C-alpha cells in the first residue's frame, strides 16, 4: 500500500482501493451516483427545482407578466428579507429544534429600527448594531431557557411569538405606525440600491472563477495526498454551468432595474452560513448534534453551547430580516412581522430541503425555498387573488414539502442512509 | 483486596480508583469500588447484569460524576466532570452503543470533536489520516465518505474503536467490544487490543465473554452488585472460579445446576 506516499501513475487512489467499490469516477460515474442517491431517498434539491419549474410554468401561462424582468427583479427583492429569516430557520432545524417566534422578533426589530432612527435620531450604524444585538440577546435567552430548564424549543419560542409581538406593539406606541424617511440610507439600500450593470457581470465571473479555483485547489490537495480527485473537465463544466446560469439571470434582471444589493446581501449571508456549516468545526458540530446529540456530547462537543449558538444565529438573522423588511416598506407598523412572515420563513427552509428531523439540509435551502414561496405569492397577487388564496396555496405547498421529507426519510432508512 | 497484585508487575500505574460510590436515587450502583490499571496492561471487568460495569465506565468517561471517592491518573488526583475532560486526560471510551452520528460520514465521525483546523476544516488531511488508521486496523470499510447509516454492525464497531485511538489516549475503555461481532471480526478486535497493549496503552475491557477475557486480558476484576468481588491474574484463574465470583457465593443457580448434573451423572455411573 504505497499509494499514499508515492502515487504512481495507474495505481488506484487511496480511497478507491476496496474491490467492492463500483466505478464512480468521471461524468458517467457521477451521473450513476446521482441516480443511486435519488432512488434511495436522498433527494437533495431535486423536488424544489421540479416544483419551481411547475409553479413558474403554470403562473406564466395564467399571467404573461409573471416571468417579466420587472416582476422577477421585484421577486428577488421581496425574497431577501424573509429569505434571511429562513437562513436562521435552517440552522435551527439542523439541530432538530424550531423557532416559531422569528416573525415576532423581526417585527420587534422593525419597531426598534423605526423608534431609534426616527423618534430618537440615532445614526444608522448604531441602529443596525442595536437591532442585531437585540436579536442576538433574544437568541441567547432562548438558549439559556432551553439548556437550563429543558423546555422544548417549540414552547419557548411560542411564548416568544406572543411576548415579542406584545413588545413590538408597546414599542410602536399608541400611533402603531412609524414611517422611515425616504432619505434614510436603510430605505435607499432596500428600495433603490442596484448593482451597476458592469459590476453585476464582474460578480458573476468572480463567482464562476471562485468555484473553479475552490474545486481546483481542493482537487490538487487531494491528488497530492494520493486520494481520488475531480477531473479538470468536470471542474470546467461546473464552472461554465454556473457562469452561464448566473450570467443569464443577471442579464435578464438587467433588462429591468437589475440585481438589488439587498438580494446580493442575502446571497452573501447564504454563502457565509454555508461556509460555517460545511467547512468549520462549529458547522460539523451542528450536524452532529442534529443527528445524535448524545454521540455529539460524548465526542466532547459542548452541545449546550451549540444549541445556544444556533438560537442566537436564528434570532439575529430574524432581526436582520426585520430590519430589511422595515427598510423595504419604509415603515414599521403593527403588522410588521405578523401574518405569514413566520410560516413563510419556516416553509421556505423546509421546502428547500431542510429536514424537520434534524441533521440534514444546507444554507442554500433558504434561497430555493423562499423563491418558491415568493413565486406563489407574487403570482397570485398578479392574478388579483387576495391573501386568502395565498395562505391556502402556501399551506398546501408546505404540507407537500413536509410529506415529501417524511417519505424520503423512510426511504433513506430502508436504503441505509441517515 | 488484591490490588497489590499489579504493583508487582513493575510498570507504572496509570489509573487508580479508590472508594468510588455512585447512587441513582435509592439504588446504589457502585459501592466502594477499587480499580488499578498500569501501562500496557489489559484489565477486563466482568460481572453480571446490573453489577455496575457500565456505570463504572461512565464514571471514567466523564458521563457520570461519582458521589464520593478518588480518581488518581498518572499520580495526580483528578476529577472527570465531562467527556471532554476525560478525553483531555487521555481516557478514550468506546461505548456499547458506539455513539456515532448516522447522518455523518466515517471521516466526520472519526474526527468529531477534534477536527483538524477548526476554522477551515482540512478534509484532505483528515481523510488520509482516516485511511491510514483504518489500514492499521485492517478494517474492511469500502469508503470513508459513506454515511455511518449504511455500515454494518462490525464496521461501526471498527469506526468507533478507530475513533478512540485518534487522540492518542493513555487508556482505552472498550465496553462490550465483541458483543455484536462475527468470528473473524472478534479475532480482529482482540488482535487490536493486543496491539494497544504493545503500544503501552492501558486497556479496560468490559465483557460477558469469558473466552475473550481469558484470551486477551492480563487481569480480571469482578464486580458483583456494585462491589468489588475479586481481582485475579488471568493465568492463575479458572473459568469456574471467575463464574463463582461473578455469580456470588458458591450457592447459586449456576453451581446448584452443575452440582445437580454431577450428582445425577454419579448416580448414573454407579
Could you characterize what this model shows?
The complex is a heterodimer of chains A (418) and B (270). Chain A has 418 residues and is an all-alpha fold. Among the domains of chain A are: 84-192 and 261-366, no CATH class; 194-259, no CATH class. Helix content of chain A is 72%, strand content 1%. Chain A has 16 helices and two strands. Chain A has a two-stranded antiparallel ribbon with strand order 1-2. Mean pLDDT of chain A is 89; it is low at 1-10. Chain B starts with a helix and ends with a helix. Chain B folds into two domains: 4-90 and 171-269, P-loop containing nucleotide triphosphate hydrolases (Rossmann fold, 3-Layer(aba) Sandwich), CATH 3.40.50; 99-168, no CATH class.
Query: How many E-type strands of chain B?
Result: 10
Overall structural class of chain B, as computed from helix and strand content, comes to alpha/beta
By CATH reckoning, the class of the largest domain in chain B would read Alpha Beta
Overall mean pLDDT of chain A stands at 89
How many separate helices of chain B?
Answer: 10
In the CATH hierarchy, the architecture of the largest domain in chain B is: 3-Layer(aba) Sandwich
Annotation field: number of helices of chain A: 16
Which two chains touch over the largest interface? A-B, 42 and 42 residues
Radius of gyration of chain B: 20 Å
What is the CA-CA span between the terminal residues of chain A?
32 Å
Strand order of the largest sheet of chain A: 1-2
Uncertain spans of chain B: 1-9
Radius of gyration of chain A, in angstroms, nearest whole number: 23 Å
- How would a textbook summarize the main sheet of chain A? 2 strands, antiparallel
Amino acid at each position: 500500500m504505497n499509494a499514499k506516499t508515492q502515487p504512481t501513475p495507474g495505481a488506484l487512489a487511496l480511497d478507491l482501493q476496496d474491490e467492492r467499490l463500483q466505478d464512480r469516477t468521471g461524468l458517467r460515474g457521477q451521473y450513476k451516483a446521482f441516480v443511486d442517491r435519488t432512488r434511495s431517498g436522498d433527494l437533495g434539491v431535486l423536488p424544489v427545482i421540479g416544483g419551481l419549474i411547475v409553479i413558474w410554468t403554470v403562473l406564466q401561462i395564467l399571467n404573461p407578466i409573471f416571468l417579466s424582468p420587472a416582476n422577477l427583479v421585484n421577486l428577488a427583492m421581496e425574497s431577501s428579507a424573509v429569505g434571511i429569516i429562513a437562513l436562521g430557520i435552517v440552522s435551527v432545524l439542523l439541530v432538530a429544534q424550531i423557532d416559531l417566534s422569528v416573525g415576532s422578533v423581526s417585527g420587534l426589530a422593525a419597531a426598534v429600527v423605526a423608534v431609534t432612527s426616527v423618534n430618537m435620531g440615532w445614526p444608522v450604524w448604531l441602529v443596525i448594531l442595536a437591532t442585531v444585538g437585540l436579536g442576538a440577546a433574544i437568541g441567547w435567552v432562548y438558549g439559556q431557557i432551553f439548556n437550563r430548564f429543558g423546555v422544548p424549543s417549540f414552547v419557548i419560542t411560542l411564548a416568544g411569538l406572543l411576548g415579542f409581538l406584545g413588545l413590538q406593539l408597546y414599542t410602536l406606541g399608541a400611533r402603531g405606525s412609524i414611517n422611515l424617511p425616504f432619505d434614510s440610507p436603510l430605505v435607499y439600500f432596500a428600495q433603490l440600491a442596484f448593482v451597476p450593470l458592469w459590476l453585476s457581470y464582474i460578480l458573476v465571473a468572480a463567482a464562476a472563477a471562485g468555484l473553479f479555483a475552490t474545486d481546483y485547489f481542493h482537487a490538487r490537495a487531494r491528488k497530492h495526498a494520493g486520494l481520488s480527485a475531480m477531473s479538470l473537465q468536470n471542474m470546467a463544466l461546473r464552472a461554465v454551468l454556473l457562469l452561464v446560469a448566473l450570467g443569464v439571470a443577471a442579464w435578464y434582471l438587467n433588462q429591468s432595474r437589475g440585481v438589488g444589493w439587498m438580494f446580493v446581501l442575502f446571497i452573501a449571508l447564504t454563502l457565509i452560513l454555508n461556509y460555517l456549516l460545511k467547512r468549520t468545526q462549529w458547522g460539523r458540530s451542528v450536524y452532529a448534534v442534529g443527528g445524535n446529540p448524545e454521540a455529539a456530547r460524548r465526542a466532547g462537543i459542548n452541545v449546550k453551547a451549540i444549541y445556544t449558538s444556533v438560537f442566537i444565529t436564528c434570532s439575529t438573522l430574524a432581526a436582520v430580516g426585520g430590519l430589511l423588511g422595515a427598510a423595504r416598506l419604509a415603515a414599521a407598523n403593527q403588522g410588521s412581522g405578523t401574518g405569514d412572515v413566520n410560516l413563510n420563513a419556516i416553509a421556505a427552509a423546509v421546502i428547500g430541503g431542510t429536514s424537520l428531523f434534524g441533521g440534514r439540509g444546507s444554507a442554500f435551502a433558504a434561497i430555493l425555498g423562499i423563491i418558491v414561496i415568493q413565486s406563489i405569492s407574487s403570482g397570485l397577487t398578479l392574478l388579483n387573488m387576495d391573501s386568502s388564496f395565498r395562505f391556502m396555496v402556501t399551506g398546501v405547498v408546505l404540507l407537500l414539502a413536509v410529506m415529501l421529507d417524511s417519505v424520503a426519510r423512510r426511504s433513506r432508512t430502508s436504503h441505509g442512509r441517515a | 483486596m488484591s490490588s497489590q497484585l499489579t504493583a508487582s508487575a513493575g510498570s507504572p500505574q496509570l489509573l487508580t480508583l479508590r472508594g468510588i460510590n455512585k447512587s441513582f436515587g435509592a439504588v446504589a450502583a457502585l459501592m466502594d469500588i477499587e480499580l488499578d490499571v498500569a501501562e500496557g496492561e489489559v484489565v477486563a471487568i466482568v460481572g453480571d447484569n446490573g453489577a455496575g460495569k457500565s456505570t463504572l465506565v461512565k464514571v471514567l468517561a466523564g458521563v457520570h460524576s461519582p458521589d464520593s471517592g478518588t480518581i488518581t491518573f498518572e499520580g495526580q488526583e483528578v476529577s472527570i466532570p465531562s467527556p471532554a475532560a476525560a478525553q483531555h486526560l487521555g481516557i478514550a471510551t468506546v461505548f456499547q452503543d458506539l455513539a456515532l452520528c448516522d447522518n455523518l460520514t466515517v471521516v466526520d465521525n472519526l474526527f468529531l470533536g477534534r477536527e483538524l483546523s477548526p476554522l477551515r476544516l482540512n478534509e484532505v488531511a483528515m481523510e488520509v489520516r482516516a485511511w491510514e488508521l483504518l489500514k492499521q486496523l485492517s478494517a474492511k470499510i469500502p469508503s470513508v465518505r459513506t454515511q455511518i447509516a449504511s455500515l454494518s454492525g462490525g464496521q461501526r464497531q471498527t469506526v468507533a474503536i478507530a475513533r478512540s485511538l485518534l487522540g492518542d489516549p493513555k487508556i482505552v475503555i472498550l465496553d462490550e467490544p465483541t458483543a455484536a461481532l462475527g468470528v473473524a471480526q472478534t479475532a480482529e478486535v482482540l488482535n487490536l487490543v493486543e496491539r494497544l497493549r504493545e503500544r503501552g496503552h492501558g486497556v479496560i475491557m468490559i465483557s460477558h465473554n469469558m473466552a475473550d477475557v481469558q484470551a486477551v486480558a492480563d487481569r480480571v476484576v469482578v464486580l458483583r452488585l456494585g462491589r468489588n468481588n475479586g481481582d485475579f491474574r488471568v493465568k492463575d484463574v479458572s473459568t469456574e472460579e471467575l463464574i463463582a465470583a461473578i455469580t456470588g457465593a458458591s450457592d447459586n443457580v449456576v453451581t446448584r445446576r452443575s452440582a445437580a448434573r454431577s450428582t445425577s451423572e454419579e448416580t448414573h455411573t454407579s
